[in-house]
Design a protein that fits this description.
This protein is mainly alpha-helical and about 300 residues long. Helices cover about 70% and strands about 5% of the residues. Helix 5 packs antiparallel against helix 10, helix 6 runs parallel beside helix 9 and helix 10 packs across helix 11.
Length: about 300
């Protein structure tokens, strides 16, 4: 099949990159090919091997070959916050402290920061639904375990199906002339608003109605694909892997907090409703960040 248009120059560049990497890293042509495929397709790569076989050297060589920024965080047992965010270094010549930024400051733009901070609310809400929903159905709605498991299928399935549908909806809006940023932020905002149905789910007396409200509250899943699309859009210099890591970090931290806080609220109040209110409030609080920090 003949090569046309941009395919020839891309092929030439990848051949040169493969040759350059091969001159430094010996005996790993398969790994090099996968790295190049990931670069061209905008994907991520997980390199796993025993220590001392050139994983870091390969990553540094790739970065140097394409004039990209290389950052490394080694998650050893003695890892300290300063190893990630940086620290102040004393200069005996000037008698002053200077800031040495850590690797997390590789490429955090305002847009990436806004997208990541917005994931705080999503992470809190998501992990509350995952960790406490079955307990709510058993303890508050007094359902047998088997019935609770069957009823939990409705919100979980709604969340899962909503993920591709939300991305498709935004794609259709873009095809109709909307800007990508406006389309995805609109779908995300609408999805977050559906979380308000979690409140009547905790208040209504009828269990069947409560489960359907939980399903409606799980339409938050419509936001998921668009959030990750915005991560790629906001990644500086094409560093999608780093941007995704920052995004997931921002979502996982409240994900750790949410189950603990929810348990404390339920234990103190004897009700799940206040915990639901907190989850909805945290999620809704990040909506303005999409419209104030994430901009063209």
């Amino acid at each position: 099949m003949p090569r046309h248009g941009y395919i020839r120059p891309v092929s030439t560049l990848t051949d040169r990159l493969r040759q350059n990497l091969g001159s430094v890293i010996k005996g790993k042509p398969r790994e090099i090919d996968f790295l190049i495929i990931s670069l061209v397709s905008g994907g991520n790569v997980l390199l796993t091997d025993v220590p001392g076989v050139g994983k870091t050297t390969l990553a540094k060589t790739v970065a140097a070959s394409i004039s990209a920024t290389f950052r490394r965080i080694q998650f050893t047992p003695d890892l300290l916050p300063a190893d990630v965010i940086g620290t102040q270094i004393y200069n005996p010549r000037t008698g002053e402290f200077s800031v040495k930024k850590g690797p997390v400051f590789g490429k955090i733009s305002r847009n990436l920061l806004g997208v990541a901070l917005s994931n705080v609310g999503y992470g809190y809400y998501f992990y509350l639904m995952v960790t406490w929903l079955p307990s709510y159905l058993v303890n508050a709605r007094h359902l047998p375990l088997k019935t609770a498991g069957a009823f939990a299928l409705i919100p979980y399935l709604t969340f899962a199906i909503g993920e591709p549908l939300g991305g498709l909806l935004a794609d259709r809006l873009i095809a109709r002339g909307w800007s990508e940023l406006k389309a995805r932020k609109t779908v995300i905002t609408a999805a977050y608003l559906t979380s308000s149905m979690l409140l009547p789910a905790g208040l209504v007396g009828d269990t069947n109605r409560a489960v359907w409200f939980l399903g409606g509250a799980s339409l938050v899943g419509l936001a998921t694909a668009n959030m990750y699309a915005l991560v790629q859009w906001a990644s500086a210099g094409g560093e999608v892997g780093f941007a995704t890591g920052v995004f997931n970090l921002a979502g996982n931290i409240p994900g750790v907090v949410a189950p603990v806080v929810t348990g404390m609220i339920v234990e103190r109040t004897g009700s799940y409703v206040p915990a639901f209110v907190v989850a909805v409030a945290v999620l809704m609080a990040v909506v303005p960040l999409y419209w104030t920090m994430v901009r063209e």
